[in-house]
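We modelled the chain as a single entity of 124 amino acids. Its sequence is:
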Amino acid sequence: MKTSGIKRLIGLVVFCAVGIFLASLWSRSTPLPAFNEALAAYKGQTPLVLGGRDRFEGGESYHRRNYVLLLSFKFVVITQRGNEPPVVREETGGFVLFAAVVMAALLWEWWRRSEKVEEGEADN
């Protein structure tokens, strides 16, 4: 059974959306109160976790979360070492770059797969 390139592209988009959803679910299950306080400065925005890192070495902890604010399309990276206050860094152009890379990857994958389908049809 052959699937069209559009169906595969939709499947790839759904796959990426599920990955982002799982990252957000992970963040909700391991909340960092200091990060929630830092995000309170962005009233009216919906922070979506794209990833993060937690590390514990030598009695010191390090936490990082990467958020995209859905209404302003800003990337916000929050880091915290030990008991220090969290450091918030905004990247306004980051979302455009992220979206461009994701779209380029999706289009490349779609093109690569549709080329294979065309080669298969030419052999028949």
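As a brief sanity check on the tokenised model: The chain has a mean pLDDT of 79. The radius of gyration is 19 Å.
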